[in-house]
Amino acid sequence: MRQIALPLLLLIHSFAYAAPAELDWLELMPPEDRKALEEMPEIEHDSPESDGFSDQGGLKQGAGLPEVMYSAKTVSALDGKRIRLGGYPVPLETDNKGRSTEFFLVPYPGACIHVPPPPPNQIVMVRYPAGVMLDDIYAPLWVDGTLKIEPVNNDLAEAAYAISDAEVTLVDESDF
Predict the structure, then answer these.
(1) Which among 15, 17, 14 is positioned nearest to 144, based on CA atoms?
(2) pTM above threshold 0.70
(3) Burial per residue of 95-122, b for 16 or more beta-carbon CB atoms within 10 angstroms, e otherwise
């Protein structure tokens, strides 16, 4: 009996701790938003440098964009699912050692300075108490954890999702 029980326990353990499913950013959008995004006309991507910086805005959308660019619609089947999502950090909070403990994860680099920013259903709040050193916000990260539908609204941005039990690692070139 022991000869069967040990391999069976190891098999169950490997399924329980298997790597989370890698998620594509578009999977965070319901089908109607993906369709609207595909059909959206070309929009300007001017950066705020041309008008000078101000303390207004951040990742929040300005007026006049197609409705899908303001969407906070989520995919309910993803709530509570363990996922792996690759993206770029927009730092929010740091600890006393300079490690980022809270940041928005966004699908493309420089989302904090480009206009227009992603819609809320393309921004994920990441809470990572262990902290990660972010020497370069243009360096991609992997975030593994349980995705929750959780509206987050602060002065910088609105997010439709959050991950609180995150494991964060820098993307290695060998990942490609």
Answers:
(1) 17
(2) yes
(3) eeeebbbbbbbbbebebbbbbbbbbbbb
- 8 Å CB contact between 161 and 121: yes
Task: Report whether 59 contacts 89 (CB < 8 A).
Answer: no
Report helix, strand or coil for 36. Answer: helix
Q: In a structure prediction context, what are the per-residue pLDDT tens digits for the chain, which is 176 residues long?
A: 555 544 444 444 444 456 789 999 999 999 999 999 888 877 665 544 444 434 455 566 666 788 999 999 999 999 999 999 999 999 999 999 999 999 999 999 877 665 678 999 999 999 999 999 999 999 999 999 999 999 999 888 999 999 988 999 999 877 65
Bin 58: left if φ > 0, else alpha if -120 < ψ < 50, else beta.
left
CB contact set of 156 (below 8 Å; sequence gap of 6+): 58, 59, 60, 90, 92, 104, 112
